[in-house]
Fold this sequence. Notes:
Residues 335-358 are annotated as: Disordered. It is found in: Cytoplasm; Nucleus. Keywords: Aminoacyl-tRNA synthetase, ATP-binding, Cytoplasm, Ligase, Nucleotide-binding, Nucleus, Protein biosynthesis, RNA-binding, tRNA-binding. Its main location: cytoplasm. It catalyses: tRNA(Tyr) + L-tyrosine + ATP = L-tyrosyl-tRNA(Tyr) + AMP + diphosphate + H(+). It is a single chain. This protein is of the alpha+beta class. It has three domains: 7-212, HUPs (Rossmann fold); 238-340, Tyrosyl-Transfer RNA Synthetase (Orthogonal Bundle), CATH 1.10.240.10; 358-520, CATH 2.40.50.140. It is 34% helix and 20% strand. The chain contains 17 helices and 22 strands. Strands 9, 10, 11, 12, 15, 16, 17, 18, 19, 20, 21 and 22 form a twelve-stranded antiparallel beta sheet that branches. A six-stranded mixed beta sheet has the order 1-6-5-2-3-4, with helices on both faces. The model is unreliable at 345-354 (pLDDT under 50).
Amino acid sequence: MADQLSPDEKFHLITRNLQEVLGEEKVKQVLQERELRVYWGTATTGKPHVAYFVPMSKIADFLKAGCEVTILFADLHAYLDNMKAPWELLELRVKYYEQVIKAMLESIGVPLDKLKFVKGTDFQLSREYTLDVYRLSSMVTEHDAKKAGAEVVKQVEHPLLSGLLYPGLQALDEEYLKVDAQFGGVDQRKIFTLAEKYLPSLGYAKRAHLMNPMVPGLTGTKMSSSEEESKIDLLDSKEDVKKKLKKAFCEPGNIQNNGVLSFVKYVLFPLRGEFCIKRDPKWGGDKVYTVFEEVEKDFAEEMVHPGDLKSSVEVALNELLEPIRKKFGSPELRKLTSNAYPDSSKTSGGGEDDDLAPSRLDIRVGKVISVEKHPDADSLYLEKIDVGEPEPRTVVSGLVAYISQEELQDRLVLVLCNLKPQKMRGIESQAMLLCASIEGEPRRVEPLDPPEGSSPGEKVFVEGYESGKPDDRLNPKKKVWEKLQVDLKISDECAAQWKDKQLMTKLGQITCKTLKGGNIS
């Protein structure tokens, strides 16, 4: 497509939906001679969220215009910015960012073979680059460095020297990546102007700068990884997307600081060229828009209801997120996610969070060997279950009364193995069979299903807690099981979860067949 575009058409594609361009004439001049070389950098700090689709959609525009695009995973910057990424996690964060950014690009149809991916520390630790950092630091004043990073670098009462180095390194990246232009959010404008001011002092060319507007978050402010309520994560479930959009700031007729409307403008229209408002026929039925301004006008005039806008964005957003969720459903990427972003409640120390860590539960895959009625209680059943030990465990359960014995025989189930054994009508129960259930008349109960290919004894863990060690035996006086069990639920997609995190084995997630919204006991 790019071969058929004129320089003016390429310029229009490169600059559409941008808030500001510094160095327009330079961009036009380059396009008269060759393709534009541009880079976009991202510090590998918090987890990317759906606002990252805004730069992704612009990268798609750049590629359509024939640009040579480099994506920089700025790991050193992530550390310099008040150590938002600890040194020991830098490599894992880069791997996570690379996987998730590539998944985002694939979900919007961007060919990865047209992109160049670079890690900051691959060139920022070289002798030449380091000398240029020293040269630049002898020219830039503390005032200029602090001012440049004011909207990007975390602002604290006693700032570290590393935060003052951050803007200068970002300026030097333009030279070492050999680009004509840098692309970023308008919040980086002061860093861009610092680069324009000081790079020529080092004998390097002044680059052009392409700036996206900052998309409002769900609360009406900037969407931020550090503000949970303002963002939708790329790996959020459909239920979470619905819940967060439902709470999003979206007043009738208000088009200012409207994150839902901005997502339509800066992501959905550039990618699809149209947007469909889905609504009940009695309110006019579905309407397809091919120009964003018409959506904005109808919303401002309250011809489009906030509920219809949110539900329509929900559909479109889930279509973008589903390939990413699917890719990150693999055990390898789930492990990468939990290692790159370890849950603070997993750390040891004996505090309250430790008491409630689900890794304390010894849940395993088991195989039912036999099922029979308790000899002294009609409502209880005895199961012999293989949990990967030399001898099967005896489990006494009342839930089996709601499940046919034939259904349980020889099937794989989930078993909690570190409760204190207790006698039930004279027979010792050595574990607990875990099932999904919904109260009612009659009560509905289903066994939980491990992933296909599972074997007795395999560990079951909560996503993000796989490295924790279970207690040898849960102390019944501490009520650990009872406290954790409250948050064990079945999602609307029939996935077993604890506090919205998946129950997993190394082969995938735990599910049940039909009991959406049920409890696990």
